[in-house]
Amino acid sequence: MTGSADPIPAIREEDATGEVAAIFADLRATLGVPFVNLIWRHVATIPGGLAWTWGLLRPLYLSPDLAPATDDLREGLHLRDLPVLEDFVCDSAGIDASARAMITALIRDYNRANSVNFLALQVACSVLRGEGRPAVPRVLAPPGARPQIASPAGMPRLLGLDQLSPPLLALVRDLDGFGRLGPSGAIASLYRHLAHWPAFLALARTALLAHHQAGSLRSAHERIIAVGRDVASIRLFPLLQGEAVHLGGADKERVLSALDEFTRLMIGRMIVMGAALLVLLPPADGREDRAT
């Protein structure tokens, strides 16, 4: 089922049943975030796509090697001279301390999920292209009995495009163009989640516009793709042990097309934009979120 919350075919988390619901639950628990990213919900609409992709990559997500690889990926951002939204500016716009804490937590969750998904899904693309194949067949293990990841208190739901006012929809679409390398039918879920705080999106757009126009966000996106491909192929691909299930030819091409588009045009860009958005908000808990 395609929900109105999504601009491309996707299974909403609340609509998932059976194997899809079980894999969604395992994704949330494994990534440690309270949501399932759009790419996974989109792949779930392709027959066998979700089971194949998660079956292939689940051992990689559980590997101790993935987290250091994502750290190295983020170190390549080199975002410079980004502004900071001072507390009095946010307060004046109606974004109080509790809202800033919620926004920060939400962006951090997306950043963590985007980083690991970006690298792992590039590995899946390599397998689908036949650039090398794991040698030992592997069957997708059933999800473990890990606890559900709870959203922070008051964490809002993902808004549908049809729930946004025309000006807010225009703002979301405009921000979704920052740092882009090419067109895509998808719109980043992070912006639609942050649409609960239109004032923050408006301030972020104003603060980052000059960097977008100067091409620095696009350049950072290009660097992330280059670094990510090297990390995925050299450090992560050799860790695979086997495919989970057979994937038919037509469905295989659909999965490859989806993963390739998302890794090239969506996820890498949102690693950049997520890092930039965090810089705008001084960390209230004393943690350093500056991208260097």
Number of helices: 11
Helix content: 55-70%
| Beginning-to-end CA distance, first to last residue | 41 Å
Query: Taking Cα atoms only, what radius of gyration do you get, to the nearest Å?
Result: 19 Å
Give the averaged pLDDT, no decimals: 85
Number of DSSP E strands: 0
| Class based on secondary structure composition and strand pairing | mainly alpha
The portion of residues forming beta strands comes to under 5%
The largest β sheet comes out as: none
Order of SSEs: HHHHHHHHHHH
Number of domains: 1
**Shape, per Cα inertia axes:** globular
State the low-pLDDT regions, or none: 135-151, 286-292
Could you explain how this protein is built, in words?
The chain is mainly α and 292 residues long. The chain has one domain. The chain is 57% helix and 0% strand. The chain has eleven helices and no strands. It starts with 17 loop residues before the first helix and ends in a 12-residue tail after the last helix. Residues 135-151 and 286-292 have low confidence and may be disordered.
